[in-house]
UniProtKB/TrEMBL annotation, chain A:
<keyword id="KW-0234">DNA repair</keyword>
<dbReference type="InterPro" id="IPR036388">
    <property type="entry name" value="WH-like_DNA-bd_sf"/>
</dbReference>
<comment type="subunit">
    <text>Component of the Smc5-Smc6 complex.</text>
</comment>
<feature type="compositionally biased region" description="Acidic residues">
    <location>
        <begin position="324"/>
        <end position="334"/>
    </location>
</feature>
<feature type="region of interest" description="Disordered">
    <location>
        <begin position="285"/>
        <end position="334"/>
    </location>
</feature>
<keyword id="KW-0227">DNA damage</keyword>
<dbReference type="GO" id="GO:0061630">
    <property type="term" value="F:ubiquitin protein ligase activity"/>
</dbReference>
<keyword id="KW-0808">Transferase</keyword>
<dbReference type="InterPro" id="IPR011513">
    <property type="entry name" value="Nse1"/>
</dbReference>
From TrEMBL, chain B:
<feature type="region of interest" description="Disordered">
    <location>
        <begin position="16"/>
        <end position="38"/>
    </location>
</feature>
<dbReference type="InterPro" id="IPR037445">
    <property type="entry name" value="MAGE"/>
</dbReference>
<feature type="compositionally biased region" description="Polar residues">
    <location>
        <begin position="17"/>
        <end position="31"/>
    </location>
</feature>
<dbReference type="InterPro" id="IPR002190">
    <property type="entry name" value="MHD_dom"/>
</dbReference>
<feature type="domain" description="MAGE">
    <location>
        <begin position="79"/>
        <end position="255"/>
    </location>
</feature>
<protein>
    <submittedName>
        <fullName>MAGE domain-containing protein</fullName>
    </submittedName>
</protein>
<dbReference type="GO" id="GO:0005634">
    <property type="term" value="C:nucleus"/>
</dbReference>
<dbReference type="InterPro" id="IPR041899">
    <property type="entry name" value="MAGE_WH2"/>
</dbReference>
<dbReference type="Pfam" id="PF01454">
    <property type="entry name" value="MAGE"/>
</dbReference>
Length: 334, 295
C-alpha cells in the first residue's frame, strides 16, 4: 500500500499533485519530513485511492524527490519552482520551498504582504546582518534591528517608522517564515529566505560565499566552519557527512586551485560545542516533538514534562544549544 | 565575428524564414540586408549554424516575432503569479489589473495569453478563474474533488477554519430559506443577521457590527452577493444571495444533505429545495466538465 503513494507521486500529474500544489502554495515552505503526510492527506482528500498507512519519515525525502521532479515540470512554465534547502542550524532538517523565478516586477509588488517601507527596513536589516564589521556575521540582535529604524527615521529614509512597527514587521516575518528569532535574541534568515533571496544574496551587494559541500549560501557564519582552504562549510553539512563515515576530506580547493587535504572528523564539530552524538540526541527529542505535530495536528503543543513546562534541550553554556533556538517556532506544525 | 565573414562564406548562407519555411540564398540580398539579418539573428538568439559540411544556414525569424513570443510567455507567468497572490491576499483579482498586465498590442495574442493563463491555473493547480462582470473582478475557485466535500480552503491557518464554518452556515441558511423562484433576490439581511446573532447566542451592538463586517468581507471575496432594492416608501431592502464564487465551488446537493443530517430529516422532505439543488449541481458538473475539456 505504501508503494502506491510513490506510484501516484511519480506518475502522471493528477489531482493529487494539484491539491499538493495548492497546499504548498498556501504555506510557501514545508519541512521535507512532512511532505509524506501532506501528500498522503492530498491523496485521501481527492479520494481516488485511500492510503491508510503513514509514510515513515526516512522515506519522506524519497517521496519529495519524486514529487519535485514531476511538479517542477509543470511549475516552471509559471515561473515557479520547488527547491530543497537544508537548515543552517538543525542537523537533518531540510525544507521544501516554493520560489518564484520572476524578476521582481511592479505589478507583483502591489500584491505583496509588505509595504515599500517595510521592504526597505528589511533590506536595511540584511545590510546590517552582512556588514563586514558584524561580529556575528549573518545575524543581528532584535534590539539592534529595532534601534535601526530610529536611525532610518532620523535620516529621513523611512518616514513614520517606529519601534512598534518594526516589532510588528519582525513578528510578521517570523510568521511567514522569512526569519527566525532565536532565544538568544538573534535574528537570522529562515531557509525560505535563503532560497528565495539566493540571487540577491549572491549579488555584488552581499556576495555571500557558498558551502563547499552543498553549494548553497552560507549566511550565519556562527554555524559554519571556515576551512584552512578558506572555504566555508555548514556545520550541518559536516554533521550530515559524518553520519556516513568517521571522516571525510574537505571538497574545497585552495586559492591556488589545489585540492584541500584537510580531513573533517567529529572533532571538527567540537568547536561548535556539539558532538555528533549530542546533536543526534537533540534531534531525537525535537524529532519526537515534530512527529507528534505531524501525526496529531490538533495537538500542536510541545511535549511537556511533569511540571508542564516545555521539554528543553541541554542548555549549559553551549551557544549552539537548542535552547537558543526558537523551539516553539520550529517545532510548530507548518 | 559574423561581420568578418568572407564573401564566399556569405554566399553559402541562406536566410530561412521559420514562418514560411522558405529559404533564400543570402547572396540575393545586399550587404546591408545580410548584415542586418545576421545582427537580428544574433540578438534574438535564433542564430543556428549548421555543420561546416553543409551550407551555413541561418534561421531568421521575423525580427519581432521571437522576442515577442518570449515576452508573452514571461507576461503570462507574471499574470499567473499575480492572480495567485492577489486572490490569496485580497480574495479577488481586479479585471483592470489583469488587463493592464496583459497589455500586448495584438488582440489575438492578448486573448490567447489570457486563455493560456486560465488553462495553466487549471492544469497545474486545479483552479478556475471566474469573471464576475458585475463587479469586474476575477475569483479563483478550487475545482478539485475536495470541494464536493465542502472543504472550501485547504491548509488555512487554523483560526480561519471557523470562518469557513460560518460561511457554510450562511450559505445553507440562504439556500433553505429561499423559495427558489425566478428573480428571487435572496434573503434579507435582517433575517441573516438574526440567524447569526442567534448562532452566537448574543445580541450586542458590537457583535452586530462585526457580523456586518464579516458579511461584507464575504461579498468582497465573492462568496455572497448583495442587492439593494427601494420599496415604494423609499426604504432600502438589503438582501444576500450566493455569490458567483459560491455558485462555482459549493455543491448545493451536498449542502442540502448536510442540512438534513443536522435537522434530522431527509432531502425528499424538501422537494422544492431538492429539485433546485439537483438543477444547480447538474449545472456545476457541466461547467466542470467544460472547464476540464478546454484546459
Amino acid at each position: 500500500m505504501l508503494e502506491k503513494i510513490f506510484d501516484i507521486a511519480g506518475g502522471n500529474y493528477g489531482d493529487e499533485h494539484r491539491l499538493f500544489a495548492q497546499m504548498i502554495m498556501a504555506k510557501g515552505v514545508v519541512k521535507v519530513d512532512k511532505v509524506g503526510s501532506m501528500f498522503r492527506k492530498a491523496c485521501n482528500l481527492i479520494g481516488h485511492t485511500k492510503i491508510k498507512e503513514r509514510l515513515p519519515k526516512e522515506r519522506s525525502k524519497d517521496l519529495a524527490k519524486s514529487l519535485v521532479e514531476v511538479m517542477n515540470g509543470k511549475l516552471e512554465s509559471m515561473g515557479l519552482r520547488l527547491v530543497f534547502q537544508y537548515d543552517e542550524f538543525h542537523d537533518d532538517l531540510e525544507h521544501l520551498v516554493l520560489i518564484s523565478e520572476i524578476d521582481h516586477s511592479e505589478s507583483l509588488k502591489i500584491t505583496g504582504s509588505f509595504t515599500s517601507e517595510q521592504i526597505e527596513l528589511f533590506h536595511n536589516w540584511l545590510t546590517m546582518m552582512f556588514a563586514v564589521d558584524n561580529d556575528c556575521y549573518g545575524e543581528i540582535l532584535v534590539e539592534d534591528a529595532l534601534n535601526s529604524c530610529t536611525t532610518l527615521a532620523n535620516t529621513g529614509r523611512i518616514h513614520g517608522a517606529s519601534m512598534h512597527n518594526a516589532q510588528m514587521l519582525i513578528d510578521e516575518l517570523r510568521k511567514q517564515k522569512w526569519i527566525i528569532v532565536a532565544r538568544d535574541s538573534y535574528i537570522r534568515l529562515h531557509a525560505r529566505a535563503l532560497t528565495e533571496l539566493e540571487l540577491v544574496l549572491r549579488s555584488d551587494e552581499f556576495d555571500l560565499p557558498s558551502c563547499a559541500l552543498c553549494k548553497r549560501i552560507v549566511a550565519a557564519r556562527r554555524f559554519a566552519h571556515l576551512c584552512q582552504c578558506e572555504n566555508f562549510i555548514h556545520k550541518t553539512c559536516i554533521s550530515r557527512f559524518l553520519q556516513r563515515s568517521n571522516s571525510f576530506q574537505c571538497p574545497g580547493r585552495t586559492v591556488e586551485g589545489e585540492e584541500c587535504t584537510v580531513k573533517f572528523t567529529p572533532e571538527t564539530l567540537r568547536r561548535f560545542h556539539i558532538s555528533v552524538v549530542n546533536a543526534d540526541i537533540a534531534n531525537e527529542e525535537e524529532a519526537e516533538n515534530s512527529a507528534e505535530a505531524i501525526e496529531e495536528p490538533e495537538n500542536e503543543s510541545l511535549a511537556e514534562n511533569e511540571n508542564n513546562t516545555p521539554v528543553r534541550m541541554n542548555s549549559t553554556l553551549n551557544p549552539f544549544s537548542q535552547d537558543l533556538f526558537d523551539d516553539v517556532e520550529m517545532a510548530e506544525d507548518d | 565575428n559574423h561581420l568578418e565573414m568572407s564573401d564566399d562564406e556569405m554566399s553559402r548562407l541562406y536566410i530561412s524564414d521559420s514562418e514560411s519555411s522558405s529559404q533564400t540564398p543570402m547572396e540575393t540580398h545586399n550587404t546591408n540586408q545580410r548584415k542586418r539579418a545576421i545582427e537580428e539573428a544574433s540578438t534574438s538568439s535564433s542564430l543556428i549554424v549548421a555543420s561546416s559540411q553543409s551550407p551555413l544556414v541561418i534561421k531568421i525569424t521575423t525580427a519581432m516575432k521571437k522576442p515577442r513570443e518570449k515576452k508573452v510567455a514571461s507576461i503570462e507567468s507574471e499574470v499567473i503569479q499575480f492572480i495567485l497572490a492577489s486572490s490569496a491576499r485580497k480574495g479577488f483579482v481586479r479585471e483592470a489589473d489583469v488587463r493592464k498586465m496583459l497589455s500586448i498590442s495584438s488582440t489575438r495574442l492578448r486573448d490567447m495569453a489570457l486563455k493560456n493563463v486560465e488553462s495553466a491555473l487549471f492544469r497545474v493547480f486545479g483552479l478556475k478563474l471566474i469573471l464576475d462582470k458585475a463587479s469586474n473582478r476575477y475569483y479563483v475557485a478550487n475545482m478539485l474533488q475536495t470541494r464536493k466535500d465542502l472543504e472550501l480552503a485547504i491548509e488555512r491557518p487554523s483560526e480561519e477554519y471557523s470562518l469557513d464554518g460560518i460561511l457554510l452556515a450562511i450559505l445553507m441558511f440562504i439556500f433553505m430559506v429561499k423559495r427558489h423562484l425566478e428573480n428571487e433576490n435572496g434573503v434579507s439581511d435582517d433575517l441573516i443577521m438574526e440567524f447569526l446573532l442567534h448562532l452566537q447566542d448574543e445580541n450586542t451592538t458590537e457583535l452586530k457590527k462585526s457580523t456586518s463586517t464579516l458579511l461584507l468581507d464575504y461579498v468582497t471575496k465573492g462568496w455572497l452577493n448583495i442587492s439593494k432594492e427601494n420599496d415604494t416608501s423609499g426604504n432600502v431592502t438589503v438582501s444576500y444571495d450566493w455569490g458567483l464564487r459560491a455558485k462555482n465551488v459549493v455543491d448545493p446537493t451536498k449542502l442540502l444533505h448536510l442540512f438534513c443530517k443536522i435537522y434530522g430529516t431527509a432531502p425528499e422532505d424538501w422537494p422544492i429545495h431538492l429539485l433546485a439543488a439537483k438543477k444547480l449541481t447538474h449545472a456545476l458538473e457541466q461547467a466542470d466538465s467544460h472547464a476540464r475539456k478546454h484546459c
